């Protein structure tokens, strides 16, 4: 089965499914709204704090988070806040197949389990690429609107953060896909996935790192979050962390591969 047919299969399944379309629209809306409104919010905050000695040096030129060169890392990190929304889309996509018995019907109609997984993986790829494209268009618009430098070399410097964001979304969605195959029920999966990714692992890794001085880069959520590092120290501490480390990319990509293999293992092991 080629990629075009698998995308068409997913499209025909969910084109009339309103909750899926609502979540997709919510993701695009939140993504664009955050980018378009944050500059005004920051300017308002700095104006309110103009008598604060610590922030006075920001008021000379504003907080240049949308200046070219910096904008791609800044936006990529901010956009990761919304990666749970497409993750819920993937969870719904997979668990709906179980609740409506369409996965069993697909297999009866001649679709192999590998092809079924590939159809879900194609949806993950499309959403990941779409998210990266959305980030690029938003960054280009905001940079051309606010950045004092607009030459071609400045615009495309650090553009690799767009691809890094796409990879981060892809691995995170692979993790969500594995969770959906594991638990098979949308409500349970969403709750447990949210608990683990937003609470359990962050708390566990913080304890292990800060109390016991353990290395925690190999935990999945930690590895995913390390692809695009927090960029804002440059404005407060004059500390620049503007590189994408190959170790972070490899560890995160390895987790993506593991989640895909585990999803396929669950599909092959379980009766439909």
TrEMBL record:
Keywords, comma-separated and alphabetical: Membrane, Transmembrane, Transmembrane helix
Transmembrane segments: 20-38, 75-96, 117-142, 162-183, 190-210, 244-267
The protein's name in its UniProt record: ABC transporter permease
């Amino acid at each position: 089965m080629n990629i075009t047919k698998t995308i068409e299969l997913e499209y025909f399944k969910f084109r009339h499914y309103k909750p899926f379309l609502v979540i997709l629209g919510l993701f695009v809306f939140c993504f664009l709204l955050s980018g378009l409104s944050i500059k005004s919010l920051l300017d308002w905050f700095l104006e309110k704090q103009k008598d604060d000695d610590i922030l006075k040096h920001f008021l000379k030129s504003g907080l240049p988070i949308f200046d070219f060169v910096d904008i791609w890392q800044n936006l990529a990190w901010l956009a990761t806040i919304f990666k749970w929304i497409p993750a819920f889309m993937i969870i719904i996509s997979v668990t709906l197949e179980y609740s409506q018995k369409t996965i069993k019907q697909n297999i009866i109609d001649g679709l192999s389990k590998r092809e079924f997984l590939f159809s879900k993986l194609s949806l993950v790829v499309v959403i990941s690429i779409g998210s990266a494209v959305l980030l690029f268009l938003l960054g280009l618009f905001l940079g051309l609107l606010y950045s004092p430098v607009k030459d071609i070399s400045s615009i495309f410097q650090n553009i690799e953060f767009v691809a890094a964001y796409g990879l981060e979304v892809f691995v995170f969605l692979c993790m969500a896909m594995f969770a959906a195959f594991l638990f098979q029920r949308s409500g349970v999966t969403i709750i447990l996935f949210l608990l683990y990714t937003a609470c359990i692992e962050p708390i566990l890794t913080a304890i292990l790192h800060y109390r016991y001085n353990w290395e925690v880069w190999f935990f999945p959520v930690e590895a995913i979050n390390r692809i695009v590092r927090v960029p804002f120290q440059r404005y407060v501490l004059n500390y620049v962390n503007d590189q994408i480390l190959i170790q972070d990319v490899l560890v995160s990509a390895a987790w993506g591969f593991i989640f895909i293999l585990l999803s396929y293992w669950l599909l092959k092991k379980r009766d439909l």
